[in-house]
Amino acid sequence: AIADPEQRRAVMKELQVMLQDSGIIVQPYWRKLFCHMKPALMGYQMHQAYEQDFTRAWLAA
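-> structure tokens emitted (61 positions)
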């Protein structure tokens, strides 16, 4: 794993070019996901598929 984003970006660019040159592929894209909530919302975590699951969430008094 490469912790530095700039070094990782260079390596990923090289790998993506290799994949594109090797044949037909579906090129993945990366997007930033954000989750906004009020401080009173407790126990809620953002889901990796961006689904909203409030079964373990509650509002603080």
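The chain has one domain: 5-59.
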